[in-house]
C-alpha cells in the first residue's frame, strides 16, 4: 500500500497533488482499519480494497492522465505552451470534463501536428519503453 508521492497521482495538467495525496492517505487508513481491526486479515485480497478505493476515489481514469503526461514529455516546450493557451480559452465546464478524463474533450485539444507524438507514444507503449512510467 503506497500513498502520496510514491504513487503517480499528481495530475499532469492541473496539479492537484496535495488533494490526491490526502485522498490516497484516507483510502490507506480505511484499508488499514478494515484489515487490522475489523477483519484482522492482511491478505493480498483484503489489502486489495486499497486498490479499489484508489481507482474509484483517488484517481479515476488515471490511465488517461498518465497518457497525457507521457505525451507532454514527448512534445517540445512550444507545444506545451500552446496547450496552456488553448486551455485558458476554455469554459470551466469543458475544463472539468477534461479533468474528468473525457476523451471527447481531450481530443479537441489535439492538432494534426500532434500525430507524430501520438505515433511515438504508441511505438513506445508497444515496445515496453513506456512501461517505465507505469
TrEMBL record:
Gene3D superfamilies: FAD/NAD(P)-binding domain. InterPro entries: FAD/NAD-bd_sf, Geranylgeranyl_reductase. This is FAD dependent oxidoreductase. It comes from Natrinema altunense (strain JCM 12890 / CGMCC 1.3731 / AJ2).
Amino acid at each position: 500500500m503506497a500513498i502520496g508521492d510514491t504513487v503517480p497521482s499528481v495530475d499532469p495538467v492541473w496539479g492537484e497533488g496535495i488533494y490526491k495525496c490526502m485522498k490516497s492517505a484516507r483510502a490507506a487508513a480505511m484499508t488499514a482499519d478494515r484489515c487490522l481491526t475489523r477483519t484482522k486479515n492482511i491478505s493480498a485480497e483484503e489489502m486489495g480494497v486499497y486498490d479499489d478505493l484508489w481507482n474509484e476515489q483517488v484517481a479515476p481514469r488515471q490511465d488517461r492522465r498518465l497518457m497525457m503526461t507521457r505525451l507532454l514529455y514527448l512534445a517540445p516546450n512550444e507545444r506545451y505552451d500552446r496547450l496552456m493557451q488553448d486551455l485558458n480559452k476554455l469554459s470551466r465546464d469543458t475544463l472539468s470534463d477534461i479533468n474528468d478524463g473525457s476523451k471527447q474533450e481531450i481530443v479537441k485539444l489535439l492538432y494534426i501536428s500532434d500525430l507524430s507524438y501520438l505515433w511515438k507514444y504508441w511505438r513506445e507503449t508497444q515496445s515496453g519503453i513506456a512501461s517505465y512510467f507505469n
